[in-house]
Amino acid sequence: MAALLTATAVHARTLIVYYSYTNNVESIVNELNSQIEADVVEIEPAEKGLDYAANNYAIGSAQIAAIRDNPDDAASYPAIDPVSVDLADYDCIIIGAPLWWSQMAAPLQTFLFQNGEAMAGKHIGLIVSSASSGISGVEADAKRLIPEGNFLSPSLWIRSSQTSDAKSLLEEWLKTINYNALISYIDNLPAESPERYTVYSLSGAQLLSEAESTANLTNGLYIINGKKTFISK
Length: 233
Known about the structure:
The protein has six helices and 13 strands. It is an alpha/beta fold and 233 residues long.
């Protein structure tokens, strides 16, 4: 009999990174963390006691303008408290971001500016809180700061007035991005097997067929179709 593929179900690790001034994003993150298993990191400005809401959010507006004028200069980004996290430990990173003047909040941009390269190839989910403005500027900031990220679509926009409805909005979003399948994969797929199977990319392109070796595949997630169909890393 043809040997069966031996496999063990594994769950990828997820990190939630967020910044929250009005506590709307914090409430959303707390609800998200009750629905999924994840580590959580809160970004804190190094300078304490600033009243970002004063003078029509003048401080935040100035920080966003500085970044916009010189996005490649580290000095343009406001200082944040040191963050102790090894991004290599995570496959999926969910970013909780407030919107400031149509852009991502400046302290969170600082963290991504410092760590965006380490997020290359990882699944990136984006949750944005704002009063009314659209989130395209925040998405653009995230993709600029994490140029090699594998961004999940769609991003989730939770308006400030919808914060109390975060539970249902998050549940629906997690289903839409197929989160459970994303973080569950099959480990220990042998490089060669006498069983007939076909390997596809997640976009559906056929890569291997019959019993060809998987040794030449790059690291990533693939759909394996044989006696069973599953996602394998």
